[in-house]
Amino acid sequence: MNTQYQIIPLSKEDFSEVTSLWEASVRTSHHFLSEADIQFYKPLVLNAYLPSLSLFGIRRASGEISGFIGVAEGKIEMLFVRPDDFGKGIGQALCRFAVQQLQAWEVDVNEDNQEALKFYIKTGFKVVGRSPLDFSGKPFPILHLKTNIR
C-alpha cells in the first residue's frame, strides 16, 4: 500500500496506550504465548522496555495510535500494529522509517511468529543467527536478522 503516514515521536504519556496496543497485537499474532506468558511480559513492556527505547508511532485521525516502533542502539526492539490495522502498510512505514532514519539495521523475531518473519524478510532483512531462548531465558527461540538496505 502506498499510503503516506506521518510518523511521530511517542512519549511516556503514551506508554499505557502503547502497552494496550502491544497486548492486542500479541494476542492476535503470538499464538505460541500462553495467557501466563502475556501477563509475565506486560508489566515488563510498560515499566522496563518502553522507557529504554526511542519510540515512534502513527496515529489515526481519531488520535489513537495505530502502530509503534521502538528502537535502541541500531536495533528494532518492538514493532506492533493494532490488529484492525494489519495489512494497511503501517508496519512497513514504521520499519522503513527505523532503517532509513534511525539506522536500525537489526531485529530479533520469535521463531514461532512466522508472519513477522515473512514481514521482515519481505522488508529486506535476512536471518543471520538463532538463539534457543528469548531475552528472559524462556524457551521461545529467537531468530536474529539484519538488513543491508540503507
TrEMBL record:
Listed Gene3D superfamilies: 3.40.630.30
Signal peptide: none
Pfam families linked to this entry: Acetyltransf_10
N-acetyltransferase domain sequence ranges: 5-149
Key words, A-Z: Acyltransferase, Transferase
Keyword Transferase: yes
Any one GO molecular function term: acyltransferase activity, transferring groups other than amino-acyl groups
Protein name listed in UniProt: GNAT family N-acetyltransferase
Organism in which the protein naturally occurs: Dyadobacter sediminis
Lineage of origin: Bacteria, Pseudomonadati, Bacteroidota, Cytophagia, Cytophagales
